[in-house]
């Protein structure tokens, strides 16, 4: 199944919304490796532009505002059994 995400401005950050379920990404708690989950309440994420020499297009870190925690997609191997999203 293809999941479509929409990123929209909210205050000084951006929401990340699942178009199919009309839910937003948030975290259970603000700590290292906290699980990310879907909620009906929008939250603002901070998008920080980073320079990656190998990439032509802009790259961004998605962070929880005012913290060192970053959104990490642990999906490098598409055949992996565990597909987790976490804040790092």
From TrEMBL:
Highest taxon of the lineage: Eukaryota
Protein name: Uncharacterized protein
Species assigned in the record: Pisolithus microcarpus 441
């Amino acid at each position: 199944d293809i999941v479509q995400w929409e990123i929209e401005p909210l205050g000084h950050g951006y929401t990340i919304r699942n178009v199919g379920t009309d839910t937003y990404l948030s975290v259970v708690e603000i700590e290292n490796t906290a699980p990310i989950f879907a909620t009906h309440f929008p939250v603002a994420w901070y998008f920080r532009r980073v320079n990656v020499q190998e990439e032509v297009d802009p790259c961004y870190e998605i962070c929880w505002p005012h913290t060192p925690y970053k959104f990490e997609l642990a999906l490098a191997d598409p055949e992996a059994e565990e597909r987790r999203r976490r804040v790092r």
